[in-house]
């Protein structure tokens, strides 16, 4: 049976967020796709959401939804759910998506499934796919009253321009002043350092196995020789070797390059979550039992300090 | 200033993760479990705030007996005391069930600030802090990459995809922190010895006044139906390198997949 599917849709810097648009593809497959946009959005942003398949846009055009984090949005969503009862609400994995969703879960006293990669219904039975680690996938459902709340991983679906036009309905819910407690004082866009990891066809990443911060340059040089972008694990970002913008993984970027070269990376779940979808994976690690080898198309059990510079040199020679 | 820091005892993230296909839960080997490394950042910033402002840092966890190890570690870093929510009825709790138990313990403390990691390293759903903030009726100030407290308000730099936001809320508030917020201290031997004597207050669901049906497997709305091992048949090749002798094979492979 076709479901009524709401997609919590984020508009940042004037444009609909890619992660939200991806979910409209899933929403259309499940039934009727309706976007919920809380906060300012101009005609172009709304047109883009319609173009990506939303039949309806519920638009709460109030700047306070953007100026105050999570609480006013969660309160409004709870009221909307009470009045309009969708079957399921899909959330992307951005910080704001997680903030609003986690607050809504407690407000509605319902279950939630996070980090999903697929959603389907067998009749009325919800079936959600959640990957755990490199080797295990769970099929998960939610019991109790609705709506079903599911948060999906980035790039689980491709955003598709289907050429639709959405009917825009104003959200008629008054914001309660008591929810205006966490205020955004300032929004700062920082110029990102280096190439855009999310769009790179080739990524060379480094982990703790590099031994010390100076050795990260070996990763950068190999990336350069291959015409790719350098990435990193959370461990070495936490350790301060490289900036957060390089981090691949659950709390970093999700990437799907053609080639991913993992240098001195053991393959902790947090990292694998962000790079598992790479088409070809080459891993270089000293420990033959490292979990990364289970994902690798080509695994080199060896010393990154020896193999990586030699490989770079060979590639430079052509 | 009283700060409660939520902490979790998790399987060492550097070991491969295994799911028990029978119980459908993560296999937890206490001997290979540690204080979640992402909690150390919250403990550190809490200690720094209390060092400046006065007050105390209380560390809170929920988990089986072995989870006390995480509390001892946090106290070795400098937390004054600990609360351990421990009850067999809590096994199998989902994110909301966990938040309900934590909220009950925190309410009794009435802290000025609650600090959580953005997400745990093992389950990584990131759903507990927001649910906890709602249950405690606190503002939620999230994804902090830096944090300061002044004049009864907390101000953070909140990491965003394109940079950061400066975000402010009046205390009491719940804050989630990222790894950039502070560099965790390494406990000295002396502090580790002292931590063994610090008080751990164990509480079960009865003591917390939590309805048994609201937590644990009984209260969990999220149900795992099946767990499958997906050994992707990648037919990967594994080569042992000696002094860089695998480089020709790597280059040949890169040519084969047409990236070199």
Characterization of the model:
The complex is a heterodimer of chains A (about 325) and B (about 260). Chain A folds into two domains: about 5-180, HUPs (Rossmann fold, 3-Layer(aba) Sandwich); about 195-315, TPP-binding domain (Rossmann fold, 3-Layer(aba) Sandwich), CATH 3.40.50.1220. Helix content of chain A is about 30%, strand content about 30%. Chain A contains nine helices and 18 strands. Chain A has helices at about 20-30, 45-50, 65, 70-85, 95-110, 215-225, 235-240, 270-275, 305-315; strands spanning about 5-10, 10, 15, 30-40, 55-60, 90, 110-115, 120, 125-130, 135-140, 150, 165-170, 185-190, 200-205, 230, 260-265, 280-285, 300. In chain A, α4 (about 70-85) packs across α5. The longest helix of chain A is centred in the first third of the chain and has 14 residues, at about 70-85. Chain A is elongated and about 65 Å long. The model of chain A has no long low-confidence stretch (mean pLDDT about 90). Chain B has one domain: Rossmann fold, CATH 3.40.50.620. Helices cover about 30% and strands about 30% of the residues of chain B. Chain B has helices at about 35-55, 70-75, 95-110, 130-135, 190-195, 205-210, 215-220, 245-255, and strands at about 1-5, 10, 20, 25, 35, 55-60, 80-85, 115, 140-150, 155-160, 165-170, 175, 200-205, 220-230, 235-240. Chain B has a nine-stranded mixed sheet, sandwiched between helices. Chain B has a two-stranded antiparallel sheet with strand order 2-5. In chain B, α2 packs across α5 (about 190-195) and α3 (about 95-110) crosses α4 (about 130-135). The interface between A and B is large, with 90 and 88 residues. β10 (about 135-140) of chain A pairs antiparallel with β14 of chain B.
């Amino acid at each position: 049976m076709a479901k009524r599917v709401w997609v919590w849709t984020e508009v940042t810097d004037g444009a609909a967020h890619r992660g939200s648009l991806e979910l409209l593809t899933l929403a259309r497959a499940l039934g009727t796709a309706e976007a919920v946009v809380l906060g300012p959005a101009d005609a172009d942003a709304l047109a883009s959401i319609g173009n990506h398949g939303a039949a309806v846009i519920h638009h709460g055009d109030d700047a306070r939804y953007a100026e105050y984090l999570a609480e006013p949005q969660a309160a409004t969503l709870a009221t909307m759910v009470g009045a309009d009862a969708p079957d399921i609400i899909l959330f992307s994995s951005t910080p704001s998506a997680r903030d609003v969703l986690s607050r809504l879960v407690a407000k509605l006293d319902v279950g939630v499934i996070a980090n999903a990669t697929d959603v389907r219904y067998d009749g009325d039975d919800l079936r959600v796919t959640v990957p755990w680690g490199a080797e295990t996938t769970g099929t998960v459902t939610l019991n109790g009253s609705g709506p079903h709340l599911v948060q999906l991983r980035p790039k689980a679906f491709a955003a598709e321009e289907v050429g639709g036009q959405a009917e825009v309905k104003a959200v008629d819910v008054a914001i309660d002043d008591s929810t205006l407690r966490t205020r955004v004082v300032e929004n700062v866009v920082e110029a990102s350092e280096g190439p855009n990891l999310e769009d790179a066809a080739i990524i060379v990443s480094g982990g703790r196995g590099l031994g010390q911060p100076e050795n990260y340059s070996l990763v950068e040089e190999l990336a350069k020789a291959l015409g790719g972008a350098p990435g990193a694990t959370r461990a070495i970002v936490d350790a301060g070797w490289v900036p957060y913008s390089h981090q691949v993984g659950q709390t970093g970027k999700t990437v799907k390059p053609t080639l991913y070269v993992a240098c001195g990376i053991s393959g902790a779940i947090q990292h694998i979550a962000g790079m598992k979808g790479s088409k070809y994976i080459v891993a270089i690690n000293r420990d033959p039992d490292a979990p990364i080898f289970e994902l690798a198309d080509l695994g080199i059990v060896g010393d990154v300090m020896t193999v990586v510079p030699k490989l770079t040199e060979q590639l430079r020679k052509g | 200033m009283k700060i409660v820091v939520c902490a979790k005892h998790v399987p060492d993230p550097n070991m491969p993760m295994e799911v028990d296909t029978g119980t459908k839960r993560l296999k937890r080997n206490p001997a290979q479990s540690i204080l979640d490394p992402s909690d150390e950042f919250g403990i550190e910033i809490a200690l720094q705030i209390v060092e400046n402002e006065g007050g105390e840092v209380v560390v809170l966890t929920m988990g089986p007996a072995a989870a006390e190890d995480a509390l001892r570690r946090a106290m070795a870093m400098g937390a004054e005391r600990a609360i351990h929510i421990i009850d067999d009825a809590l096994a199998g709790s989902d994110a909301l069930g966990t938040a309900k138990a934590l909220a009950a313990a925190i309410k009794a403390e009435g802290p000025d600030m609650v600090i959580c990691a953005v997400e745990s390293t093992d389950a990584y759903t990131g759903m507990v802090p927001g649910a906890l903030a709602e249950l405690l009726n606190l503002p939620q100030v999230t994804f902090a990459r830096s944090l300061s407290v002044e004049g009864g308000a907390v101000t953070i730099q909140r990491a965003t995809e394109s940079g950061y936001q400066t975000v402010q809320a009046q205390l009491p508030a719940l804050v989630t922190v990222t790894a950039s917020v502070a560099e965790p201290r390494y406990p000295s031997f002396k502090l580790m010895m002292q931590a063994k004597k610090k008080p751990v207050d164990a509480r079960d669901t009865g003591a917390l006044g939590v309805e048994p049906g609201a937590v644990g497997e009984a209260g969990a709305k999220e149900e795992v139906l099946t767990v499958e091992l997906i050994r992707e048949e990648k037919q990967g090749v594994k080569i042992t390198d000696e002094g860089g002798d695998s480089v020709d094979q790597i280059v040949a492979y890169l040519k084969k997949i047409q990236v070199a």
